Amino acid sequence: MSDPKAERYRKRLGEYQTALAAMGITSGVDDVRIEHHFECLADWSLVLTLEEMIDWFEERRHCPPMTVSPIPLNQVRGWNADPETGDIHHESGEFFIVRGVRVSESTTREVGESGWDQPILEQVGLDGGLLGLVRQRIEGVPHYLVEAKAEPGNYRVVQLSPTLQATFSNLKRAHKGRKPLFAEIFEAPHENGATVLYDRWLSEDGGRLYLKRNKGMLVEVPEGTIGEVPAGFIWMSMFQIKACLQLDAWVNPHIRGIIAHL
User: Fold this and answer.
1) Angle between helices 4-22 and 31-39 (to 10 degrees)
2) Residue 28 sits in which domain range?
3) What would the pLDDT profile of 142-160 be if each residue is shown by its tens digit?
């Protein structure tokens, strides 16, 4: 039996689309954007209420899956400084390099024409990685697969992150660990039955990252493709994602970048 909330979603979405068409403001606007706007007006989640989702996330922040401790840079295992240049790099030759840049003729900046020197992070190969968000309908209602992901530099360790957040070095398993979950959906979407809704290179913070960009993707898989999700993942409505943007440092910048085009 269909969930009454799902039936209301489909009915109200149809009424919303009809009303917009009657006002003549849908010309040239794709269906994904129109439905996105409708999704943001109310919480249509069939999985958890917003309150239940907040409890779920706070529990993971309370017991993060990693402990982060600052240590001296010269004690970091697997990273070496080049004796000639001083550049710091990983022993695999992958991930990123810490190197220096000199900025000159900076007439529009606060330092002025004298410029400045600084260390900067350079991704090996310059292109960073894949940032991918999966959308799947549950009884016709769009849901988004989000991870409560721990990163060593995150504020409070755990933040809401896209389904996939991995550098190309991680995807190549340069760390000799496992391949990230759901990577195949974004590496070969059509072979895995997914429809690509968004696929663009996204810029990163140029103040600390040298020429870096990441590929942002939003893909939709057919209903029922992904059943039970691994621990740490959750299906969220777009309304819930937007609501969490109102909370301090809950949603990481990669989700924001992926959904910003909608």
Assistant:
1) 120
2) 1-42
3) 999 999 999 999 999 999 9
